[in-house]
Structures are given as C-alpha cells and as structure tokens.
Amino acid sequence: MNGALKITLAASLVAGLAACGNDDERSGPLGVLAQTASQVVAQRRAADQPVVAPKSPQEAAAEALRVNPGPLIQAGFESLDRTQVMALTGQNGALRTYMTPAEEALILRGGMLVGTRGLGHDLSVAEPQTETLIRAGATGTGVRIMRYFAGDGVERPLQFSCTVGAGPRPGVTVESCQGHGTSFQNSYMVAGGQIAVSRQWIGPNLGYVTIQTLRP
Amino acid sequence: MATTLPIALVLGSAGTTAVAEPMYGRSMSTYGLPGGIDTPTAETLPDGTLGATVSWSDYARRSNIVFQALPGLTTVLRYSRIDGINDYRDNGYITDRSLDLRYQVLDEQGWRPALAVGLQDFLGTGVYSGEYIVATKTVTPSVRVSAGLGWGVLAGKPRTIDIDDEGGTPNVDDWFRGGARPFASVSWQVNDRLSLVAEYSNTDYVARYSNGQVFQQGDEPGSSLNLGAYYSFGRAYQVGVYSIGGNSFGAQFSIALNPREAPYPSGLEKAPAPVRPRPSPGADPDGWSGVWAQDPTAQPAIQAALGDAMADEGQILESMALSSSRAEVRLRNTRYINQAEAVGRTARLMTRALPPSVETFVITSTAEGLPTSSVTLRRSDVERLENTEAGQIAAASVLSDAPAGAPGLVRSEGVYPRFRWSIKPTLNLGIFSAEDGLTHEVGAEARASYEIAPGLVLTGALRQRVFGNIERRGPGIPGQRGEYYTAEEYEADPSLETTPEGVPRVRSDTRMYSGNDSPVIPELTLAYYAKPTPAVYTRVTAGLLERAYGGVSAEVLWKPAGSPLALGAEVNRVRKRDFDQLFDFRDYEVTMGHVSAYYEFANGFTAQVDVGKYLAGDKGATVSLTREFANGWRLGAYATKTDLSSEEFGEGSFDKGVTLSIPLGWATGQPSRERVNANLRSLSRDGGAQLNVRDRLYDQVRESHSVKLYEGWGRFWR
C-alpha cells in the first residue's frame, strides 16, 4: 500500500514538472515517459482496487444488454486475460467495427475476425479464402493471409494454409492453419451464414479471442 | 510474397530478402563486436541492431557502441580507458577513441563458412590498430569454429604510434602489412542462455610510440589462450566473464536494441473512428444533389464539426475548402510519427462529416503553416477499401505538390494566432569526454511560441541551471595539453579568441557558455516561412538563433512532393553572442552558408551533401548518410572537411560524428511525435562548425513527401 503510494507520488511529481504547459507536441521525452508512468500506475491502482463486487462475464453482458440498445458482442482475450463487452460503432457494408469503452476495436465480417485496433500487436487485416467454406459448413482447404505491422513499422503479410472441416463437437466448424513455423485452430459456430460464437486466432502475440454475439 | 520464414523473422528481426537465418553472433567480444573474447569472428548482428558493450579488465575499460549498418556491415565506435600507458597527463592511463568496420563478404552456406574482413581502430593514432580476415563455420548446431589471419595488434605486432599525428585519418599504407599471424576461436552454445568461448590470440597488449616509449598495458598475457563465459537474459542483455592468458580476468555487460523489435509494433493508440458509408440517394436526396452547398451556414458548421473530431485525433484542421463535390482540408499533424496515419484518420473522419455529394477528398499536410503535399482520394475508394491491405488505397490515391493557397480555402476559427508554452526539466549529459568523464547539467526551461499567422512564428526560451558539473571554463591552452584557460583569463583577453594558428574560436570555447548560474536565453527568434511556388519553400529566421550566435538566417529549398532529390541553399549573417547568453554580442561576425543536395535512396537511406563556408570562415563540405526506419528510428553519420589543415583543426583532423534519433512512441507504444536524440561528435572544434538554427526546412517538408509518406503508408488504416 505504502509502496504504491510512493510510486504514484514520484510519477506525478515528474509529470507535474514535465507536463506543465499547453504544448502537447513538445512536452519533452521526460513528459511522455512521465505520462506513460502515470498511466501504468493508474492501471496498477485500478487492478489493485478491490472492486465492490467483481462482475462475472455473464453479469457484465446482462448489464450491457440493459444499458445499450445496439448490437453487442462479448470478447474474451485469452492472452490478456480479460473479457469485455464491445459495442457496434460503425458498419461499412458487411464490415462491423465493435469497440470497448477504451476504444480498442475488433473488426468483424459476419462474425469472421478481419482486424483489431488499439491492442499493440494488432492484426491489420485478415484475408481468409476459407470464409465461404466456413459459412457453408463445408469441407475443404484454402489460403489465409494475415497482415501485421512488423517492428520496423512496415506492414507484412503472413500466409497460412488452412483446412476446414467439422469439429469434434456437433455444429462446430474447425479451421486448422499452418505456416511460418506455427499453427492455430479457429472454431466457429455458424447459424444462417452468420458466425454467432467463435474462437479465433488474432496473431502470434495476442493469441486467441473468443467472440460471442450478445445481440446481433 | 512467398516466404515461409518463421514468424519471428518476418515480424521480428529479419529483413524480407533473407533466405535462411544468417549467422548472428551469440556473444560479444571485448571490442564490442560479435566475436570470441579478444578475437573477431565472421558473425553479424541482425540488420539495424544498435548495441553497447562495456568491458572491464586490467588492460582497459572499453565502452563500445555497435551498429549493424547493413546486413553485412558492422560498425563500432569505441571509447577506451587504456591502463598502463602514460602520456603528458601522467595519469597512468590514456583515453582513446577508435572506430572499427567489419564486412561479412560471404554468409555461411552449405559447406562454405562465413567470411569477413575487418579494420580495427583504423582512424589515426591507434593503440588497437589491426586488420583481419576471418572465417566462421557452424560445426554442430551449438558449436561454431572461427579461424583467421590478423595484422597489427591482432598479430602481436602493434604499430608504432606517431605522437605528432592529430589522428582521425585512415593510415591506408599500414593496412594488412607488417606480417600476419593466425588466430582462432570456438564457441559452444550450452543452452539458450549460456555460451562458452575459448580462443587462441596473439594480442600482446604492448603500445609503442614514435618517441621510443614502450608500454605494457596491464600484465603481459601468460599464454595465448583466453577463455570466456557469457550469459544472456531478458530480450536484450548479456553478461560475461573472461580470462586473458590465464592471469588477467575481466567482466563485461552488453545490451542490444533492434529497431525492428518494438514492444508494441502496431502502437497502442485508440482505434480510429470507422468509415461511415453514405446513405442511398433515395434516403438523402438533398445531400446527394449538392443543393446544401448553396447554404452559407453549411461550411462553417461542417468545418467546426470536422475540426473538433480531428482535434480528438491530435490533428489541427487549419483550413478547408468545400464545394458540392470536392473538399480540401489542410491539417497539421501533432500526434503521429507517420504522416500516413494522420491522413488516413482524417479521410475516415471526412466520410463521417461531409454530405454525400462530396466525392473528392484532398488532404493537404502542412508544416510551419505551409502546405507540403496533397493526397487526393475518391470517397468511394475510402468506403470500398477500408480494412483492406494499405497498398490498395495507396494505389487509388494521388500525391501532388500543394500550392500555398487554394480557391475557396477558409481558415478555421481559433487556429491563429496560436500560443503554446511549456516548462520542463532539462538534462544535458556529456559521455565521451576524454578529460572529464561523465558530465551532467540539470535545469529547467520555459519555452513559448506564438504563431501570429500561418508561417510567422515568434519563439523564445529561458533556461535556468539548477545543478551540474559542467562548469564554465576557457578552451585548452595551446601547447599545454590538458590545461585550460580559466573563464576569467579567457574573458579578460579578447586576443585568446583566436587560436595561435589564426583560426577564430567559434566552437572550441563552447564551455564558456556552460555553467551559468543565472538565467540564460538559449533562443529568441522570429521566423517566417513561405512558399513562393508549389515546390519551393523559404525560411527567414532572425534573432538569437542559438546559444552562441545571433543574427539572420535565410534558407530556400526546392523539394517536389514526388521527388527523391531536393536542392537547397542557406545564407547566415551571424555574430557571436556574449557568454552570459543574454542580449550582448562579442566582436566576431561572419557571413556563412552552404548549398545542399539531398537524396532519398530506396531502403531508407538518405544522403546529404553541403558545400560552403562554415562559422570560422573555412570553406569545405559535409557529407552525411542517414538510415531511417518506417517506425521513425534514425541513425546517421557525417563528416566535414574544410580547407583548415589538420594542424589548424587540431586533434581529430576533421569534424565527424554520429547522430541517433529514437521516437518515444517506439518504446512506449503511445502515439507521439516526440523523439530522443543523441549526437556523438568526436570533438568540439572550430573547423567545419555549423550554425545550429532550428527548424531547417528539409526535415519538416519531407515528412509528407513520397518516400517518407509511402514508407509509413502501412499506417493509413491505423
């Protein structure tokens, strides 16, 4: 407790020194680092603080459905160990952008993951040739291209070869992909051409996300 | 792209042209390159790696900075404290800078070993001067063997050091001469973290001087066998211990950063507002017909709404021209390191703010109030290509020069005049000073800028030192190495402001400007930027231009948006400022300037050549070469040679240095245009000294020009 307080004080002192002014553009390296440090501290505090009654994903979903009249999904990011309700913020043709309150986004096309934003290791865009097979519940093979930012700031494609078929559980279609020394398995529950529930691989760093449609 | 490389190589550390994992070094030598202990190997580091190794032993404390400038080219800048050698300072050690180059001629392939050629300490007075050819072969996946031929120090035949040489120039005549002897090493990668190295080395750690003095550094090695153990931890660190000849021991620490390995490669910025497609013509007949454009209240309302939305994205909507079918916005990007991200986010906001009949989007970037380039997009392409590969929207867009004005352009309310201020702590560090070791100065700086109109900026700064050990002093006393004039002596005798060789002291008395306990004014300027034609930019800056000079600086730059070539010229009439850094001047006055050519090569290299007259009135040229990554990392080197002789210039013979700039967003993931900059120059000398005027045109203008814009284009849909 004491330690956390000390960190907060130190960080805000630096921030106070550094971020004084109205010039965001040139707040100085110290200013930016102090901001980052304050954010980290804020996050830690948020995590430390005992929430009055930690909401289960079910309770969070129920509350979101009550508050928000629009389309909603619930996304469980496995590597981040968090489950969040995301609301529709834009629709361009079949593409739907869902966002968390912190403005992290998942972009879906009829439930198929097409991209992520704001997560740090985002999937820029996925081009799955297996999409029609999956929606039709058919069996077959196809190529899946996933584009990411490499560390040097250039967008680079990864190409995987995928096999689509029925999974061990009835009603579940499984897409198994391989390439670049790794492999992953996406699972989809399709109803009427729409993917209602799925577990899909975002990328090498973020791993899998489980997506459940709360309100289509 | 048909690659099957492992993910880590595609997204992490390897270039796109690699066909197999190149032979990367596993441990660093005491000289800071991939190698054995004292001997080199033919290994490299991943392209672009920037690293540092500090190595301590009875022989020396070496601080090495390594940069893998090209996939095969490894460069090292070294600052050593060499024990056992006495010079005029009589400290029992000397400090020495040295530079190494190694080129891997062949990478390992099949039965063929990797082969490299290297020059060690090849500039001037080299205690470590030597050359080598070395081959390295992977014997089993965990064992590598290297063998080579060394000359100079590597052959145990150190060259005689000319005590009168000012250093800094290559002694090509000595290279690969004086008899070669073999060296060899074997390294065993025990597991992911630990590697063991044994080597046979002929280095005898003797230094010979032209005045007959011979020094043994540390103890004479007991044998030619050296042993080392290295342990890697984290992503970037390595510690090692080693023994030289069985009787001397040493320890070292290395860090390696790769610009290609960002903690958050895609950034942590908030998701962009998605494209809003237009309703069907039936649903919004007025919007599609364009009759709304007749309404005089339409543009102000739209401009205000778009400006607010852009402000949330860190973009300033400076002005806008709107007709029923076309909209041009002029934006100032204050947040994203890649201009393409600013353009892409603005394009999406435009789909949300503009009536359906507007089909043509012109997004013009500005710098210092001047338009620098225009990206023209069709709205239907933005709608159609959202969430596709960024290359598609690049192909559907047009980049063009932007004229200073455009018909119908309306300035946004409240953008000008713009007043900005900040108070922030400052920290100056001096690391590579031979005399002083690590020096620092901590203080606070208040800075304000007032943009009166587009392109007209008043800037001022006030700085107060709080504490530090960079004290005020005069330049070195000629003929008495290691002795300095006191500040009082220097100030009392104006004749000291010219060296005995007749060179005006334009930079060598830079320490006279340090250590001020009262407030100083580092700069106070009025700058005017203009754009007489769509590809020509001009700047005039007047006032206290930098801490040591004030006057007028005028610059003109020709840089078409689609051209990798730019040409510029600059003329400055400046006077030396008084050491109190307020409003007084000293007697020295000079008109200087240069003409410049800039060229942006493919794969991120930029070259610049300046020819002209420098601060001391000497004439010459500066060549600089910079490597730049799409994520904003910049590493460069420059050299200036003027008509001053080596004797007139002094130690180092000519001016040279290394520059480094790392965007903070690379490290934190938060979007920011802030950078951490470092400038390592060999010495503060009077020859080839440039005026440090702020905001020269080239770097400002080219942010939104073809090479840089398309290099970062992947962020359009970010």
UniProtKB/TrEMBL annotation, chain A:
Signal peptide interval: none
Pfam families (UniProt xref): YjbF (PF11102)
Keyword Electron transport: no
SUPFAM superfamilies linked to this entry: YmcC-like
Stored InterPro entries: GfcB (IPR021308), YmcC_sf (IPR023373)
Protein name as catalogued: Group 4 capsule polysaccharide lipoprotein gfcB, YjbF
Protein keywords: Lipoprotein
UniProtKB/TrEMBL annotation, chain B:
Region of interest (Disordered), ranges: 265-285
One Pfam family per UniProt: YjbH
Protein's name according to its UniProt entry: Exopolysaccharide biosynthesis protein YbjH
Record organism: Paracoccus sediminis
